[in-house]
Amino acid sequence: MSTRMLPLSLTGRLAVFFALVVSIALASMGAFAYYSLAAQLESRDDEVVRGKLDQVQHFLREVDGRQGVSSAQHRFGDLVRGYSDLIVRVTSQQDGVVLFSTGDSDATLTTENVSGMVIMRSENATLGKDAAAVVVVVAKTGEDRQQVTARFRATLLFGTTVGVVLTAMVGAAITRRELQPAHALIRQINRISVERLSYRVDMPVKPTEVRDIAGAFNAMLKRVEDGYIKLSRFSADLAHDLRTPLNNLIGHAEVTLSRDRRSSEYVTVIEDSLIEYQRLARMIDAMLFLARADSAKVALEISRIQLNPELRKLSTYFLVLAEERGVSILIDGDAIVDVDAILFQRAINNLLSNAVRHAKSGTAIAINISSDESICRIDICNWGDRISEHDLPLIFDRFYRGDRARSNSLHSTGLGLAIVKSIMELHGGRVTVESPADGMTRFTLQFPLKRREEEERRVTA
After folding, report:
1. Which of the chain's ends, N or C, has fewer CB atoms near its CB within 10 Å?
2. What is 230-294's CATH topology?
3. What is the arithmetic mean of pLDDT over 115-126?
4. Fold entry, domain 302-460
5. Which CATH number applies to 3-169?
6. What pLDDT was estimated at residue 6?
7. Which residues contact 86 (CB under 8 A, 6 or more apart)?
């Protein structure tokens, strides 16, 4: 059956499939029963013909010659009584004269196309006293057998048809009843809108398939709700962070144009405006990077890096700022990782910039490198104000900055830590943060070493 001919509804399709399966099963059983019955009836006809042939031969041995056969016609009639389709013919071998026959035996026995006829003959039969040889033919046309099989075939066809129809109806009813939880789930899903993302559908106890669908749908709703909340917060933070430099630029321009200025004042305004332009450029660059990272369009150029010398080189860019704040940078440990060098430098720069800004004067920023068989860890620790428990889960969100960092917003876009998280995810790693009560803040980068191990195995092979 072509799939285009099937009904569109699941109830209709299952009803058709049920009917098809039942029709095949009933047809198979009916065919088996039909041919078994036909074989048994034919076997019974063989037994009847063989038994009648023995009876006729026994009777012929008791008659008194050919005259005895003629005078005992009624006894031959008794042999075939009750068998409307039984034929008996006795013929003399000497002259071919038919001594006894039932019905139109000549026409029937000479017809070659009689279907299902059972014929047995004996040429060794003899008459009683004169021992004259005769030919005995006993046949059964099979008409009664054909009538029985025809009635049985009609009954099978009718029963199969009724069974298929009833199965389709019962199957449709059962399917419709079992799909009620699915229809209820659809009605609940139709109630969901953007304003009701917190709505959760009920999870029926059975069937388990619908329960699993409901659970998966609720999990999807949770992800959509979280994404929608983050997007709403992102939009609000983006509007806030873009508005600040734009307002500064507008304010500078309006004040400058309010009256004639000296050339030095115009230079100052342009320098201040340039700072805001640079801030906007950094923000746009960071947003573009995050958008490309989200859509997996950042192609990694993997290279092998020795971490200790690389981190020492990167820390030199922050030495001047660190000295101004009375902070030192210490590096301990070493390892080798396979990373994208540019993205790795960007992640480390963002974390070092964040550590130097928030470290207390007179403390040290500690960079510790360690590794095991599968992971390389880089811990960047600084001592300063503790990050609150409320801020810790949100610190890697875009445009999120704790209250203590808001005063530093002139130098921060609020996207640095979000970029670090995206870079680590692109490398198959992760970044975590801890801020215990002693004032130490630890950012941990975890790089997987699987890529390097696979390459070493290929080289060895």
Report:
1. C
2. Helix Hairpins (1.10.287)
3. 74
4. Heat Shock Protein 90 (3.30.565)
5. 3.30.450
6. 54
7. 48, 49, 52, 80, 102, 138, 139, 140
